[in-house]
Prior knowledge:
The protein is of the alpha/beta class. 39% of the residues lie in helices and 11% in strands.
Amino acid sequence: MDARDRLRQYLEQRKEMGESDLVLDNLPVEDLMKVLGAPGKGQSADPAVVVRSPLPMPDRERRAHTPLAGVPAQKAPRPAPEPIGPLRPVAEQPAPTGDPIVVGGSITEAAGASHAAHLDSLQAVSDAAAACKRCSLFETAIRHVPGEGNPEAKFVCVGEAPGATEDETGRPFVGRAGNLLTDILKAINFAREDVYICNVLKHRPPGNRNPTPDEIVACSPFLLQQLALLRPHVILALGTFAAQTLLQTTRPIGKLRGQIHRFHGVPLIVTYHPAALLRNPNWKRPTWEDVQLARRVFNTAAGA
Length: 304
Ligand code: URA
Ligand code: URA
């Protein structure tokens, strides 16, 4: 494939994701410049396309070193709690902006408004999810997949929903994407057993179709209660679905990743879903940046 084809494919993928910023992994910038007939460094012929080199550049350096400055101190006064119910379906959310998103109030308050509020342990959440008939997914799923990991974990990964292997085993992220997640965690010095791994949905949607808004409303209280019990220092939202659901936004993942949001006071970092990385290796680099950011925020919160 020549550079022009690769560029076209790349841009189509980005457009699909609603992105306008490019991080170019395997395509030399010079090739791209030639394709675009671009006049100079860092500029493209199309002003709508912002080209950033994968090589260290001053703004990338800055971005890599400043995020912690953006983490409000743990003791900082929280915004006044708003009444918060179960997570709402994405379609009802306000229009996106480019700023970090703050979902207000405490997790406990948010979970307190839900059907899962009385569940006082992770096991109780799991048992309730196993028996749950609030949506129809229990009819087609083999088993529930509540989540797993260290019950004391302060780093929590949230995915979308169980896939086939997860449905068969009752364990989250154990298929191909799961193995990649395990490797990603290793790369930031976490063993799977150190962290807690769960999903927005606790039962597999048939054929891995997208969850419906009703399923999110029915199931998200379990996630909220898990987060209320775990009280993590950092939440890593994996993929569009977890990110948009937790942050209650329709903003595309390319505009959510790379910054520190707040989910009921907890720093929340968004990155690409490991399954998406398997399809598109170009997302490995930004994912690496995101998980390193998550690790730094974790270290700061843990006083490490
Ligand atoms: N994808 C997810 O989002 N979650 C899993 O548990 C497995 C694959
Ligand atoms: N689509 C998703 O759902 N998640 C990603 O991370 C990328 C594309």
